[in-house]
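Work Package 3 (structural annotation) set out to generate three-dimensional models for the target panel prioritized at the project kickoff. During this period the team completed the workflow that converts sequence records into discrete structure tokens, so that structures can be stored uniformly alongside our sequence database. As a representative example, we reproduce one entry of 651 residues exactly as it appears in the project archive.
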Amino acid sequence: MSFRGRLLLFFAIIVVIPMIAVALVLFSITADSETGKADAQIAQGLRAAFAIYDADRSSARSELDKVASDPAVADSLRKAKPGPLERELASLRSAHPSVDSIAAYDSHRRLIAAVGDPTSVAPAVAMPSTGSGRRLGFVAVSTTTAADYVRDVGRTTGLVVRLARAGQVVSSTVHEPTHEPTRSGDVKIAGRKYRGRFADLSEAIGPATQVGMFQRESALQSSIADRRLLIGAILVGFLLLALLSSIVVVRALQTQIARFLEAARRLAHGDFSRPVPVEGSDEFAALGREFNDMSSQLASKIDEVSRRRHELEDTIRRVGEAFAAGLDREGIVNLAVRTAVDACEAEMGRALPIDRRRMRSATIGDTTPELEAALEAAERAAFEVDPAAGADWVETLEGPSEDETTEQRRPIRHSVDGVHALAAPLVARLGSGTAIEQVGVISIVRTGRDFSESEYDMFTYLTGQAAVSIENVDLHETVRLQAVTDELTGLYNRNHFQDTLDSEIERSRRFGTDVGLVMLDIDDFKQVNDTFGHLQGDAVLVEVARVLRELSRDIDEPARYGGEELAVILPQTDLNGAELAAERMRSAIEELQISRMEGDGALRITASFGVAALPASAQDRASLIAEADAALYRAKRAGKNRVARGGPVAA
């Protein structure tokens, strides 16, 4: 194939084929973009529907106050007789023409009586009570019918609005049969295709209500087609322009390359007297000048390469020293393997952990069956106990003295059918103890040439520094954990509890969720200490802490608040959920049988609990803790071994 043909083929590869791919991608992106716009409009419509729903419920509040304040309603609700209560509600509705429906429920949220339009929505709810504060039930007043609501939302958003209750459509802005099942996504309504979705409306009481926003599918498809037509026209124009430009460039390149070809043929025959002709200042001229300078620079470049090799070795040693100061467990291992592969000119390297909590695995380079076999053989040999190394391994297992430094084993050489590997086991002093542990192995491999002594020494140095760095990381993590943990129980301490509670309260305000708090105090703990001793008291605290950990979710935060008082932070948990969690903990503690320190029988204990939640019981951290603590001592005064709830937040 001629040079010109290759350039045209190159043009097709770099312009035509990518252009087709770009067209396909843009067409797909266009469809996704238009669909995303439609979904965004639907989401905006749902937000508007929620706002209108809240406004309608607020407008019903004034009528609710009139109805709920009627003494006759409270009296009928207390008696819970449907007939008289329905007559009383009907009388009140007649007295208030703006009310569309009134419904009464008992304290268990069961419907007793209802009058008015059954499709009414956005009810305002009140809870009448006796003079002593006992709740009689619920009264719900609505001033908005389903038809009025969907009409207002449709006029505001310009979308098709459907209202569903108990899973069936009860009202819609398009003519369709009622009691249709609710379904989101692509649906047919009255014979036409629509796209949309339903969302739950927040009802304080009564059956679940959903509002759905839908958009015509034909409008979406028309918009996608118009965008694709415009993109196609632009791409065709660009393709024609690129074709014309390529023809001009090909002709210019042919002339320049013919001159370079003639000069190259002279050089091939040993004629160095005539340099490559250089004209102009473009890239071809620069290529000619570089070609002429190439032979004279070869000797100097060889010296420079040697010098840079020594500089690289010094740099690698400095990197190795940096390993010992690093605190990134995964980054340390990756850097160690990558540096070993580069410094020793290996084809592949990897790090394998014994315990993934202590060390991360890493692989650099592409593996083949031959390389894999050599690596596995070297790694097995690295952990073999031979007579020469037996004493070292016994010392490792027994643990050195506290003032003794960790000494790494020398790497193992291994060759399999011309494939050469080095493997070094990593040993480090981990945790707060003094024992030295095996944490893993680092190995490298290459084909053909065995590793030299300098490469062997470099690999030994790098693996040793990696082990030191792993020790530093583990020590740092141990110290950090001790700073926030109670030494006796293993629970978080009070400082960490305060910081975590602040964070959870901030998160709950940002996302509109609840935060529950459980505080407990071990009943008669002082008597346990005085009777059985402080060691027995410590054992009681440890067992209670274990129960809290076992009954806590992953997101919960059990902590020792102080003395025998413990606490559990319950994210995304309301007051009822916190009370249920506390009751489970109370029951589990009551069932504990703690062995007596003198070995005679078992000790039974109980605990009193106080629960509170934000925003139901408090508005900030201090009031949340105070409310839970007050509830705890109400439980103490009520007889201990029970759960008490915090009261509602003050208005």
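Residues 61-142 form one domain.
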